Amino acid sequence: MLVDYDKCIGCKYCSWACPYGARELDEKQRVMKKCTLCVDRIYSATLPEADRRPSCVMACPPGARLFGDIHDPDSVVSRAIRENGGYTLMPEWGTQPSNHYLPRRKTAIAVHDDQLVRADNPLKIDGKLPKPSRQLPTLDDVTSW
User: 0.70 cut: is pTM over it?
Assistant: First the structure.
């Protein structure tokens, strides 16, 4: 959903109506703004095909962001959504958003039994919990409630 800045009066109705909370008022220009997925880059005939992606996708060092045609079953994004259980936010609203999210990868971590016990655990030394001396002042002795 793009905003026509010439028609926007900054009433914030679209912000209240947006189920994703994606709209913000630009206080300086007094218009509503949100991410446009760099629409000017995507449709630019002057850029090579490989560069027609949003800046955030191109700048992401680990390549965590994907961009492509979800209606093409052979595209990178369609395969990622299909193979990794991609999902949209709030599908019950029926807005059919084009942004999809992939769940976090499950990472196997080997934990050994000796890593679950603290080496300096006082119970390992004498088997008893340490107790304060009865002669030492308690919190009630030194504080006024």
Answer: no
